[in-house]
C-alpha cells in the first residue's frame, strides 16, 4: 500500500462516500454542540467548567459515533481511524459557546 | 427506516425535558430571589434532568443521522457488474466480442 503513487492511493477510495461520511459526522457534531451548549447555560456553568463540560460531551459523542455508527471499526468509513474522534470538534466549539451564552443569559442573567 | 422514527421520538423527549429543566431553573432562581436568599447550588433534580436530556438527545441525533458508507473502492466494486464498469465514456471498447459473433453468424 505504501509503495503506490498518490494517484493510485486516491483511486482506492470512493470520494462520494468520504464526503457523505464527513457530512454525517458534521451534522452530529453541530447538533450536539447546540444541545450541550444549552445544557451548560441551563446548569449555569461559567469559565473553565464550561469548556471542561464541552470536552466531556465531545468525548461522549465520539464514543457513541464510534460504537453505534462505525461498530467499533472506523477504518472502514474513514481514511484515518482517528478521524472519528477529532472531526469537527473545534468547529463545534463555536456553536457551543453561542448557545451556552444565550441560555445562560436567558435563565441566569435576565429575569 | 424505523431507527429514524425512534430517533425522532427520542429527540422530542430530549427537547421537552431540556425545556422543562430550563423552566425549572428559572422558577428556582425567582423563588430564591423572592425569599431573598443567595443562589449557591442548583437542586440535584434539575441537574439530573438536564444531563438526562443531553444523553437522550445524543442517542437520538446519532439514530437520525443515517448510516455511514464504506469508502474502500474494492467494497464498492463488488456491487457493480462488469457491464456497468465497461460502459463509462472514457473507456470505450472497440475491440470487443461483437466482431467474432458477427463473423460466426455470417
UniProtKB/TrEMBL annotation, chain A:
BP terms from Gene Ontology: autophagosome assembly; protein folding in endoplasmic reticulum
Subcellular location: Endoplasmic reticulum membrane
Transmembrane segments: 39-68, 88-110
Principal place of residence: endoplasmic reticulum
Membrane topology: Multi-pass membrane protein
Keyword Kinase: no
GO cellular component: EMC complex
Name used for this protein in its record: ER membrane protein complex subunit 6
From TrEMBL, chain B:
GO molecular function terms attached to this record: inorganic cation transmembrane transporter activity
Top-level taxonomic group: Eukaryota
Keyword Repressor: no
Pfam families to which the protein is assigned, alphabetical: MMgT (PF10270)
Membrane-protein topology: Multi-pass membrane protein
Transmembrane spans: 9-26, 46-68
Keyword terms, alphabetized: Endoplasmic reticulum, Membrane, Transmembrane, Transmembrane helix
Classification via PANTHER family: ER MEMBRANE PROTEIN COMPLEX SUBUNIT 5, PTHR21181
Family (UniProt): Belongs to the membrane magnesium transporter (TC 1.A.67) family.
Name used for this protein in its record: Magnesium transporter
Taxonomy of the source species: Eukaryota, Fungi, Fungi incertae sedis, Mucoromycota, Glomeromycotina
Amino acid at each position: 500500500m505504501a509503495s503506490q503513487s498518490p494517484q493510485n492511493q486516491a483511486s482506492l477510495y470512493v470520494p462520494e462516500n468520504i464526503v457523505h461520511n464527513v457530512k454525517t459526522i458534521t451534522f452530529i457534531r453541530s447538533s450536539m454542540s447546540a444541545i450541550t451548549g444549552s445544557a451548560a447555560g441551563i446548569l449555569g456553568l461559567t469559565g473553565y467548567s464550561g469548556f471542561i463540560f464541552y470536552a466531556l460531551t465531545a468525548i461522549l459523542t465520539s464514543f457513541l459515533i464510534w460504537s453505534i455508527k462505525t461498530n467499533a471499526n472506523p477504518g472502514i468509513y474513514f481514511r484515518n481511524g482517528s478521524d472519528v474522534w477529532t472531526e469537527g470538534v473545534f468547529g463545534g466549539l463555536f456553536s457551543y459557546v453561542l448557545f451556552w451564552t444565550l441560555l445562560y443569559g436567558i435563565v441566569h442573567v435576565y429575569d | 427506516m424505523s431507527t429514524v422514527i425512534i430517533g425522532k421520538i427520542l429527540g422530542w423527549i430530549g427537547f421537552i425535558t431540556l425545556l422543562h429543566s430550563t423552566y425549572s431553573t428559572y422558577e428556582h432562581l425567582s423563588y430564591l430571589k423572592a425569599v431573598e436568599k443567595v443562589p449557591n447550588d442548583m437542586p440535584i433534580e434539575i441537574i439530573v434532568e438536564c444531563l438526562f436530556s443531553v444523553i437522550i438527545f445524543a442517542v437520538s441525533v446519532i439514530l437520525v443521522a443515517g448510516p455511514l458508507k464504506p469508502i474502500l473502492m474494492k467494497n464498492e466494486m463488488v456491487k457493480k457488474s462488469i457491464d456497468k464498469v465497461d460502459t463509462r465514456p472514457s473507456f470505450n471498447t472497440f475491440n470487443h466480442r461483437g466482431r467474432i459473433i458477427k463473423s460466426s453468424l455470417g
